[in-house]
Amino acid sequence: MPLATIPIPPSADFWQQAVRLLLMTGQPLGDALRSQAGDALDFSSCQLLVPAFSHAQNFKNALARELGRPYLAPRINTLSGWLAMLPPDAQAAPPESERLMQLYAQLREHGWLKKMFSARRNADLLPLAHTLLSLSDELTLALLPEIRAHAGATDAADNRWRQALAQLLEPLAPSAHGMLSDEAQLVWQVWKGQLDASDRIAQRFSAMLALAGRASMPLVWIGPTAPEPLDAAFLNAYAERQTVRVVTLDWHRQVIAQRHPLYMQAWPELADDAEGGYPPADAGAPSRPVTLPVLPALCPAGDLEDAAVQSAQIVLRWLAQGKQEIAVVAQDRVTARRLRALLERAQVAVADETGWKLSTTRAAAALAAWNEVVAARGETGALLDLLKSPFVFPDDAAKADRVMRIEARLRRYNIAGEWQAVQGALADVADGADLECVATLARQAAQFAGRKTLAAWCHAERAMIDALGMAAALRQDVAGEQCLLLLDEIAAEQYGLDGSALQDEFSFAEWRALLNLRLDATSYMPPIADRRVVMLPLNGARLRRFDAVLVIGADAAHLPSPPQETLFFSNAVRRELGLATRASRQRQQLRDLVELLCVNDEVVLCWQTQQDGEPNPVSPWLQRLALKLAQEGLPALEEIRLPPPPKTLPAQMSAMPAPAAPELLPPKLSASAYGSFLACPYQFFASRMLRVAVMDELSDMPEKRDYGSWLHEILTRYHETVRDEQTPAPARAPLLETISAEVFNRALNQHPAALAYYARWQKVMPAYLLWAGEREAQGWHFVMGEEALSHTLAWEDGAIELYGRLDRVDENEQGERALLDYKTRPLASLRQKVRDEDDHQLAFYGLLADSRIDAAHYVALELGADKKIGDAAAPDFPQRQQMLKQQIGVTMQAVAHGAALPANGIDSVCQYCDMRGLCRKGAWL
Fold it and tell me: Are 351 and 533 in contact (CB under 8 A)?
């Protein structure tokens, strides 16, 4: 039976021409029509295969327009759909995860592979196994028909391989031959090992040949490109029994030059040089003058946001004009995502036919966050990311507050991670549920240790999902349900037809790498409720017509798409083996673009002219088209830019904020809080009355406040021991060294960088002991340290509680008491500090002791230029206490009575103020 190709030039009436040609005498539909008597229009004796089910409706609509009356349509299907109707093969192909992990298990046994590909651990070979399988499948698709067609074709394939390898090695230095030939030989051996009766592509090809062997009706194959080798072999086998017609786009040079001369001259590489093929539908018509096609419009945008806004306005304008079929070709997926968000904000749904990687969804991010927490052993950043996922502990009504408390505690104590340290930081929290929340995570993480089978890893993952209450939340999310099904699918793939489970065991790192690969390889398709705006790739627009088309990413970086370089094979080798090359991929993409321009009357090409501060040029294809227009003296491509929608904003003069909130006066006041009030009343209002706080930054490096906390603990323990045990002078230096070592060793376990602070303190210890001995010789003795005190300060109609913690209190033989406050600063700066009349810290602490303190000193814990430390006494201490007491009473009473709290801080205060974003000083000053 004959097999013939019916080429049709790309145009808006492709389907109408296809129907008209197939109804001609000698064609499947025409012969079926003429074999029937009367007015019967029954084409069910013909089989029609289309690229996608959406094309079936295009064919039916064209056939209805051509016939003008009811008919029975041909049997329309896709090749995959037709094959799915066959009974399953007796020998099922191995699942993808089994196939991948079996190859990976073989690769990890060869140490030379890790060295060759710079793999630091076994799991790094998993992407290599995935790449090898992809190349193996490419080779199977290209060479399998030749092997099946001739008994000796295996030798022919080997010959082609040797020729391709010679092409690879010829231009290289002899020293590179060994490495490259080893890599190429690895691919070839993997392919030959995969090519057996259980290979899924081989099984699909066998099913295709079985269909061809039972051919009972004419077949029409419609596709935008020439059939691939497997498809071509199937069509040839089918043609041995029935008539076969291949309807495809005609890219012959003569045809394109006649129909689209402008495009042919701008892009000569898009045409086929071979002649022949079925004559076009209007071959016998008289020649007609060549007309300028409807050219696309350009929309250059300044940056990503501008590109998304312009694109959204274009789509909204088209909808307002009544267009019902709008295509968005997403060459730039980042800008396309932003466009989708803007359209959804405008209540316009986007039907995404491309889909997204499942790994980019929030549900998959929750699984990835869990695996990161396990791998990082409770690292704080990963732990907080997990807790903030909406899928984790979704039924906890107090979750938001709980996570906030946990984060504040971990940041306050600068806990970098590790389960024991995290739980230790939460051991004394008021709400025990906070600790139990983290303990639950730690218990589940302990289950992800050791080596397990893939089925066991899936079960551990599902057990974790149940323990964290994630199951119900995932099932309510479309992507979450898909993630659960993926885990179940991987688990089911580990059992053979006889019910036996695969026993290969893998580490957690290997399991995580596999799961990430599967999540990347799985597409997530959001539910489609409205198809007025469709987002698709450029090749998704083949053989389809729309009311308008918007191409996002018409720049040099995205059009043509960046090449997907593959290890091992150069383009010369790929060409020799019959695989797709970079040139062939780009030519097909150019054809897809030209088809889009020929079929659709309104096309807009949008791109970012600036990216990361650098110029981002338009696609070279569009530059060549613009150049050809200029050479021919034709108008340039139209550029469009829609103005932003008008917004009316009321003019409002900015002024210094000066709120009054007597009802928000805090019941307690610390020294630092009062210092904030004196520095800037608005800062006090925002931070202490509104309780706006900035989270502490997590850092691997300990901060100076951590150093101060360690020294406070060391000195308190040291002086309490000396006081209680009457430690003699010779034993005090070893005692201080012992206590210091205990405190810093604990700190070093959490922050190794604390070693620098430890060395710094070791230099200070001799000077401190010398100063402490001199002070004791003056008659002063340690009484207490780290003492929390409070004192109520009252006025006529109110009161406020002063509170704080005293670093140290000494007493002499006369019963006088002195307050000492440790500072990790040199003595000279502390002497300047006590002379400052605005310094109120020591006086504030004196008020806490209810005037039972007679003197106050700052103690320097930093060596000065003379390698000594000392103390700086506060002058006129009793008078300063009384002045501060009166000042606090007057100011807090005024706040309680509604006094304004202006943002009048000086520049040195505002420079580092966390509340500047609220007062917006730069907007009104």
Answer: yes
Element (H, E) at 432: helix 432-446
pTM: predicted TM-score of the whole model, two decimal places = 0.75
Model confidence at 568, in pLDDT bands (50, 70, 90)? low
Helix (H, G, I), strand (E, B) or coil at 428: coil
Residue among 844, 841, 842 at smallest CA distance from 856: 842
Q: Convert 592-638 into a string of H (helix), E (strand) and C (coil).
A: HHHHHHHHCCCEEEEEECEECCEECCECHHHHHHHHHHHHCCCCCCC
- Return phi, psi of residue 911, to 5°: -60, -35
Cis peptide leading into residue 560 (ω within 30°)? yes
Pairing of strands 219-222, 244-249: parallel
Would you say 136 and 190 are in contact if contact means Cβ atoms under 8 Å apart? yes
What amino acid occupies position 790?
Answer: S
Q: Give the closest residue to 821 by CA, choosing from 868, 877, 763.
A: 877
| Positive or negative torsion for Cα 394, 398, 404, 405 | negative
707-757 pLDDT tens trace = 999 999 999 999 999 999 999 999 999 999 999 999 999 999 878 889 999
CA distance to 63, 65, 74, 96, per residue, from 68 (Å): 8, 5, 16, 49
Measured in whole angstroms, the distance separating CA 756 from the mean position of its chain's CA atoms is 37
Q: DSSP state, 687?
A: I
Under the banding of pLDDT at 50, 70 and 90, the label for residue 283 is very low
What b/e readout covers 723-758, taking b as 16+ CB neighbours within 10 angstroms?
Answer: eeeebeeeebeebbeebbeebbeebbebbeebeebb
Contact criterion met (CB below 8 Å) for 240 and 213? no
Number of other residues whose CB lies within 10 A of the CB of residue 848: 22
**Three-state DSSP state, 55:** helix
Q: Rounded distance, CA 514 to CA 508, Å?
A: 10
Compute the distance between CA of residue 63 and CA of residue 15 in angstroms, rounded to an integer. Answer: 8
Which pLDDT score is estimated for 530? 85
Q: Which helix (H) or strand (E) holds 534?
A: strand 533-536
> SS3 for 572-585, per residue?
HHHHHHCCCCHHHH
What sign does the dihedral 432-435-441-443 (CA atoms) show? negative
Query: How many other CB atoms are found less than 10 A from the CB of residue 155?
Result: 11
The pLDDT tens digits for 95-139 are: 777 788 888 888 887 777 777 677 777 788 888 888 888 888 888
494 vs 453: CA distance, rounded Å: 9
Helix axis angle, 174-194 relative to 126-149, nearest 10°?
70
Q: How far is the first Cα of the chain from the last one, in angstroms, to the nearest whole number?
A: 89
pLDDT, one tens digit per residue, over 434-485 is: 999 999 999 999 999 999 998 999 999 999 999 999 999 999 999 999 999 9
Q: 654: exposed, middle or buried (C-beta count within 10 Å: 0-12, 13-18, 19+)?
A: exposed
Beta bridge partners of 858: 821, 872
User: CA 360, CA 340: separation in Å to the nearest integer?
Assistant: 15
In the block, residue with structure tokens 């590179």: 176
The backbone torsions φ and ψ at residue 604, rounded to the nearest 5 degrees and listed phi first, read -120, 130
Q: Which of 82-86, 187-191, 304-308 has the lowest mean pLDDT?
A: 187-191
Q: Could you identify the residue written with the tokens 């316009």?
A: 348
Neighbours of 398 (CB within 10 A): 12
Q: 39 φ, ψ to 5°?
A: -95, 10
